[in-house]
Amino acid sequence: MAKRRNEIEVGTGNVFADLGYADAKERTLKVELALEVNRVLKERKLTQAQAANLLGIVQPHVSDLVRYHLNRFSVERLMRFLTQLGKDVEIRIAKRTARRARPAVRILHTA
Q1: How far, in Å, CA of 8 to CA of 99, rounded?
Q2: pTM, rounded to two decimals
């Protein structure tokens, strides 16, 4: 029996870009913001109904957020959720260095 070789393709580091989404950076940013929102909700041990009341949305939308179904949420809306949860959101724009070929969108979490 002949051995079969598997081809391995190196990813870019962004799964959405690798899957061919034109809005890969926005999708990545939304996921990172949602991760933080969900972390705070879990840390506070809020029910979905309590979270909905706090965020000013309906419970089914909280369910979407918790399951990372983010189509109904904009980056701005997710940032507003974080501020409603008592977090500061900071946007920093910097010149790209020559060493970093790809543009970067990052979220830095501080205590």
Answers
A1: 26
A2: 0.78
